[in-house]
């Protein structure tokens, strides 16, 4: 029997259209054809289990071969095969109807809409024509008494179908590679594509004599069957050369959607170097993409690993994906699983959890900021670390500071440092007073502080150098000044003149004689606006970013230096004032350039004069 026919579609020349516009994704032809071969093999295995196929299954490998000379790529399976009638039905009608629909939708659209449409179609078998000028199918059905069939199509809508000789059950798809697709005749290129998409397919895939896949990747197994080593080994396979993960979560759910996978918490060295797109998305073990946006909550994009779900609609556009209800459920499920796992780690092994905190703190805070539900869970296991290195939960910390750090309005004032080294003298001044100082030095911390202030009752945060130590937490008691009002005014004028800088506002304060003679502070409000702007607050914050800092210079009326400045001759007094001011700048890490040089010289002169 030989038959020629016309594929029943209304649109001529659909091949060139598809070829042209699916350009960027040409390599997926191999994924589609190998998946079809795997599906056909699995269908046969199911038939055998059901007793509908009684013959010998034999070896079920899928073989991919390339013949560069003959310009051929062949994908062979020993699956259930197709009769001539089935080829007409499944290839001519079903496979081609997808393509027709594609072109119908596609042809009158503008460029942007076209981009969207491309993403909606998994063209399956049809994608072979992206790289081939002619495609042949040789197939022998598993059904007894059937004849093998040979189908060819040269990329027009015409096909031929004839009886054929084929000894083995199964299907060979032969691609005659087109002149503009030479790259796919390279063994190395094909190997790369196969490794990318087919590495975990459930049926062995042999390429040029070598099996390229693991048919039972660990996410398909039960957690009880697996050891820690299995998990870390798999991680190394996915991400060679990376440091071992901190821990992992094995996802396994059947209802109301189907999802398996393993999510790893990587070691994050530098929070500005987030490695995104590391989670790989699979559908029944076929690699789809590592763009998991929308499937995984934004704050968990930093995780690594694998998610496998036949329920994720893969061939739909992004906006559809966002609205898809199973995607939403998956999102919620993953968030909950991650929170549960963190809670478990925290409860089971607090010391181990604290050790990992510098790596996981980022996820937790990011999650709390971006997801209310996550906040509610994480508020019990988020940790705060103080400048001395000790960790507290939110509740523990509130208890820790509630006696000493209540101000006169019954507000708890939490003090923090963004850099305990640079702000050392302020941290020491505060701790000497019996206050505790938190270390909040992460990029996200300004936002995190804002969130805690909203959530925790009667609590405000102040950076430890936002004010002189006596005023950081306002109490009822006041320190008396030893200076008269006149002296205070003179002192203020003297310092203003000596500093001679409009952004430095001098005031005379009655601090303790043990405090520094001069302290420079930046009001909390001002600093926050600038911090927010720096981490991308944008909008209304922008104006603060461009504003020069406006510092407060507190001159300590009760320090012996104040007396000395007042008692000195005008010029000597100014020199002393400048020296005291420079010391304050030094304590704030603000003494630079010419001022620093002048300070060093003046100090040397003063030493010599003693
Ligand atoms: N190697 C094969 N062996 C047996 N049947 C096959 C083979 N390849 C394709 N088919 C048949 O042709 C049909 C159409 O294939 P095609 O790849 O276009 O679509 P699909 O696999 O159904 O869906 P998708 O668009 O997701 O790939 C398949 O459903 C299957 O019945």
From TrEMBL:
Entries under InterPro entries matching the protein: HATPase_C_sf, Heat_shock_protein_90_CS, HSP90_C, Hsp90_fam, Hsp90_N, Ribosomal_Su5_D2-typ_SF
UniProt KW keywords: ATP-binding, Chaperone, Cytoplasm, Nucleotide-binding, Stress response
Keyword Transferase attributed: no
GO terms for MF: ATP binding; ATP hydrolysis activity; ATP-dependent protein folding chaperone; unfolded protein binding
Domain of life: Bacteria
Residues bound to ATP: 32, 36, 77, 82, 97-98, 120-125, 171, 318
Keyword ATP-binding belongs to the record: yes
Transmembrane segments: none
UniProt similarity note: Belongs to the heat shock protein 90 family.
NCBIfam families for this protein: PRK05218.1
Protein name: Chaperone protein HtpG
Native source organism of the sequence: Hymenobacter jejuensis
